[in-house]
Design a protein that fits this description.
The protein is mainly alpha-helical and 446 residues long. It is built from 23 helices and no strands. Helix 11 packs across helix 21, helix 13 packs antiparallel against helix 16 (265-280) and helix 19 runs parallel beside helix 21 (382-393). The two termini are 35 Å apart.
């Protein structure tokens, strides 16, 4: 049970270093990584080196920093202001409109793209500045954006779903077709609980509709800033190239290449959005090498803590994997003998625990089949068991301290990620865990 203790000590070290000692989250993540590596004993050097090397190659690290740079560029141009004027013209009169919009948009984008960090990055790059402009605090805006990440898993047809359904133990008892409709209904339950969370946040924090003086007629805001809508091209173009008829035609033309594998959304969305900002905001950006050097120098401090935090989180996750965390949790799960609601809660907690350091896909590959088998053994319908397991795994972006969407959203919002931890757990992680338990026990039909 070494890896399980390593996970417990990893989380404890981060909480103590960040909350008790009041040090920044970047330092806390590095301390957590060192504590985790210490459990490797004589192999500590090898485990930590390989874990760090793999973390440095994570595309989410690049994407998070790229979105921070894009946000910094946008701040120096009128592009984002024009876009927010248009959004306010449409929804500014609705109390908490940006929060509801972010939540629904995450559901729509998640149903198409399915990649948690990509959902947060694409939706949050627009809605986080909009929320902040509407007097929503930075850490609450980041919480809402990160909280929507998991909806990519709870709607068909995500890679996480296919990983679970492709495992031998699951494929032998239920087909993929039998899971599609129940999973879609499960996704709607998860969207509903996020909308309830949005409603509670809006009331609790006293968020009001935008003042009438701040809302322009739609005709005027479109007339002035219609070109800012091109910013969405950075999201739409990669989606068209990787999903739907165009992607299928391109794949056939390229001798059967799967475009969703060839083009990474989390990499290309920020690249294209930065390129579009450079074009749309060219009149307000530096014209000389000296000017660009000054601009880049001003952006550099924003990358420090964020980059260290992400690398530390992924390094620790890799180290826990090498210590055998998935196998040990699977073994622990196999010992549980309890009433259905208790078993469902234990299964959910263990899946959520694995999703803390791992992505949803990796979680399902590691413990998904065992979780489904445990639920089926307790009398749960096989398709329902699969839906419950996927709902549990969808907490990947809401279970601190290691979820990549947390750091993507915090980077865009320019806030300390640790300030989102408690709201994420309270508004999203625990309610989604309970939704999964309710689905498994039949309280919520799917």
């Amino acid at each position: 049970m070494t890896a399980i203790w390593a996970l417990v000590c990893y989380i404890a070290a981060i909480i103590v270093w960040n909350s008790a000692l009041k040090r920044n989250i970047g330092e806390a993540m590095l301390v957590g990584f060192v504590v985790t590596g210490a459990f490797a004993g004589g192999d500590i050097g090898s485990v930590m080196w390989h874990s760090l090397a793999e973390a440095m190659q994570e595309e989410v690290t690049f994407a998070a920093l790229a979105f921070v740079f894009m946000s910094y560029l946008l701040a120096g141009t009128p592009v984002l202001d024009h876009l927010l004027d248009i959004l306010n013209s449409l929804l500014g009169r609705l109390r908490g409109g940006p929060i509801y919009t972010s939540t629904v948009a995450a559901g729509v984008f998640g149903a198409i793209a399915h990649v948690g960090a990509a959902v947060t990055a694409a939706v949050g790059s627009v809605t986080i500045p909009w929320m902040k402009r509407s007097q929503v605090s930075g850490h609450l805006a980041a919480t809402v954006a990160a909280g929507g990440a998991g909806m990519g898993i709870t709607f068909p047809f995500s890679s996480t779903m296919f990983i679970l359904m492709g495992s031998a133990g699951v494929a032998s008892v239920v087909s993929t077709d039998e899971v599609v409709v129940p999973l879609f209904i499960g996704g709607l339950w998860c969207l509903l609980v996020r909308l309830v969370a949005a409603f509670v946040m809006i009331r609790r924090h006293g968020i009001q509709a935008a003042e009438s003086s701040q809302i322009q007629p739609l005709r005027r805001s479109l007339g002035v800033g219609w070109t800012s809508l091109m910013l969405f091209g950075g999201i739409v173009i990669p989606l068209l190239l990787t999903r739907g008829p165009l992607a299928g035609a391109l794949g056939s033309w390229l001798d059967g290449v799967k475009m969703s594998d060839a083009i990474s959304l989390i990499t290309w969305i920020p690249v294209l959005m930065v390129a579009i900002v450079l074009v749309l905001g060219r009149r307000n950006l530096p014209k000389s090498g000296k000017g660009w050097w000054a601009l880049l120098g001003g952006a550099a401090p924003k990358f420090g803590v964020l980059g260290v935090t992400i690398v530390g989180a992924f390094s620790a996750a890799n180290a826990l994997g090498e210590l055998g965390l998935p196998a040990q949790l699977t073994k622990l799960l196999g010992r549980v003998d309890a009433p259905l609601w208790v078993l469902a809660l234990v299964v959910g907690v263990l899946v959520v625990a694995v999703a803390i350091p791992l992505t949803g896909s990796a979680t399902m590959a590691a413990i998904g089949p065992v979780a489904v088998s445990a639920l089926i053994g307790a009398g749960v319908d096989p398709a329902t068991a699969c839906v419950a397991a996927l709902i549990f795994a969808s907490t990947e972006g809401t279970s601190p301290p290691s979820g990549a969407p947390i750091y993507v959203a915090s980077g865009i919002a320019g806030v300390d990620p640790s300030r989102t931890f408690a709201p994420l757990v309270g508004y999203y992680c625990l309610p989604i865990l309970l939704i999964g338990v309710a689905v498994a026990t039949g309280v919520l039909p799917v």
